[in-house]
Amino acid sequence: MNEATGNFRDSSGAAVRPPIAWALAVIAGLVLNWLYPLPFLPAAMPAGALGGIVFLAGLALLIWAATTFRRAGTQIQTTQPTATIVDEGPYRFTRNPIYIGMFLGLIGVAIAIDSLWLIALLVPFYLVIRYGVVAREEAYLERKFGDVYVAYKSRVRRWL
Question: In angstroms, how far apart are the furthest CA atoms of the chain?
């Protein structure tokens, strides 16, 4: 809400767009890994294949969640208004399947290139998403949908 005009801003007001935060974490991890590699997996482990599977699992979850949003007629972007509370598809199990998909994607990249830097960057990425995005989204959804969202929050976990 704009205090001066009393206008309600119909979006979450997220501090950052999640795909940008994800891309920055990956780029930072790749640069750090290039400057000072920190492998964490045994040499015999098929890191590329295992990382690829984890990455694809995250991507599949993200696509499933985005498709569910589109079918419900609501926006995916944090800068756009939310039209409805979605409680189908992956949203039956978690309130944040897109962000879980992003975490899995980051873990998959970390495994694929065997980089402890990318694993370490999960912490700041989590903090940015949790406090800069999810907290604002939840406050926005509670303001906009009231008891409907509160009931959904009581039924479905934030993460897993």
Answer: 62
User: Distance between CA 154 and CA 65 in Å, rounded?
Assistant: 20
Measured distance CA(79)–CA(152) in Å, rounded: 22
Is 91:68 a contact under the CB 8 Å cutoff?
A: yes
Q: Could you read off the pLDDT of 58-110 as tens digits, one per residue?
A: 999 999 999 999 999 988 888 888 889 999 999 999 999 999 999 999 999 99
Report residue 52 as tokens: 């690829």
Taking alpha carbons only, the member of 40, 24, 57, 47 closest to residue 117 is: 40
Residue 67: how many other CB atoms lie within 10 Å: 13
Global pTM value: 0.89
Q: Which residues contact 59 (CB under 8 A, 6 or more apart)?
A: 101, 105
Q: Is residue 19 classed as helix, strand or coil in its secondary structure? A: helix
d(Cα 35, Cα 37) in Å, to the nearest integer?
6
Angle at CA of residue 130, ends 90 and 141, nearest 5°: 65
The H or E element that residue 97 is part of is helix 97-113
What percent of the chain has a predicted confidence (pLDDT) above 90?
Answer: 79
Is the Cβ–Cβ distance between 159 and 94 less than 8 Å?
yes
CA distance 87 to 153: 10
